[in-house]
Amino acid sequence: MDWDARMRAALSAARGVAYLHAAHSLAHGNLKSSNLLLRPDPDAAALSDYCLHQLFAPLSARPNAGGYRAPELVDARRPTFKSDVYSLGVLFLELLTGKSPGNASVDGDGAVDLPRWVQSVVREEWTAEVFDVELVRLGGSAEEEMVALLQVAMACVATAPDARPDTADVVKMIEEIGSGHGRTTTEESEDRSMGTPPAGTTP
Predict the structure, then answer these.
(1) Do the beta carbons of residue 42 and residue 93 sit within 8 Å?
(2) Do 83 and 74 form a contact (C-beta atoms < 8 A)?
(3) What element of type H or E holds 178?
(4) How far apart are CA 59 and CA 73, in angstroms?
(5) Cβ atoms 170, 152 nearer than 8 A
(6) Predicted confidence (pLDDT) per residue in 157-181, tens digit
(7) 3-182: CATH homologous superfamily?
(8) pLDDT per residue over 21-69, tens digit each?
(9) Helix (H) or strand (E) segment spanning residue 36
(10) What ranges do the domains of the chain cover?
């Protein structure tokens, strides 16, 4: 996946989760890359396996879901909007680093934690080492967008749930990152659906 495809995947995932939260007051509960289904339309994707947590054993009775699970879900509590945001952040880090959360480790005991690995690298001011080498080759403006998405991802994986942004804010932040590169924002999509031309265009 090139950078544009990864950005569209990140935005589609965020929009899908935001829709579940806002329109249906549902937490997905099982966000991971294998549950993000990309479609031929570059601006569309689908989320699968949402809300299946209600049918199975509590998270504490199952293995760490591949490194996507928020740290506060170590007990039997149900997934929340904020734990979904954490999982979104891990998904963004996966897109940026090219690393699976299940293969990242910063502990001698092999504990899986992609967010902490990224934090440790950024703390040492080796930010460029975080990114997938295939993305770094793009250079130019793509590097600025990568850093911007990294900042969004790190906000999403904050340890304290209250410190994480809401999904609607995550969507807005990602739209702003790509606004200068032909991606359609939520506001523009709504305008077009009502027959109103985007700002700066001539009817």
Answers:
(1) no
(2) no
(3) helix 167-178
(4) 7
(5) yes
(6) 999 999 999 999 999 999 999 775 4
(7) Transferase(Phosphotransferase) domain 1 (1.10.510.10)
(8) 999 999 998 899 999 998 888 777 888 888 776 565 554 444 455 577 7
(9) strand 36-38
(10) 3-182
